[in-house]
């Protein structure tokens, strides 16, 4: 367990809204159901690693799935602010303080990896789990450095490279703890079903 809070960012599992790039393969309902399973798996992992878990919700902040997870896992629900992903992450760190932040697309992140990242954060300004597609699946910070989030081309292969440029510019001590794959495309879904068949019901 770690003393660092864990922030989870999530959309509601609404058909036509969640996992839209998987809709051609799974349909709107199937994509939303997969998102719901990934969301719960992420919360289960987070509560194994930290006693303090914040679920920052987007869009339908009082969606029944969020309320259900709050009641079953004793997590705190907070609404994401408006703005791009960078603005929303910056706000979350400003509200929570030193923490780890993850999404729901990377089932490879387990409790042991979260604890490793928390231990690394004790000796660094920032820690990351990068994603094979050029983004990152986890960021841990002691404070919300504005330049890490402003003007980043989110949802592109340049997210991590641009972030690394900013880290060097700010002369921050940082560590890439691991690199993993996440679940965005039909090919990713096939990979998910090989490694995590329970998530592909």
Automatic annotation (TrEMBL):
The keyword Membrane does not apply. SUPFAM superfamilies: Nucleotide-diphospho-sugar transferases (SSF53448). Gene3D superfamilies: Spore Coat Polysaccharide Biosynthesis Protein SpsA, Chain A. Coiled coil: none annotated. One of its GO terms (molecular function) is transferase activity. It comes from the Bacteria. Keywords: Transferase. This is Glycosyltransferase. It comes from Neptunomonas marina.
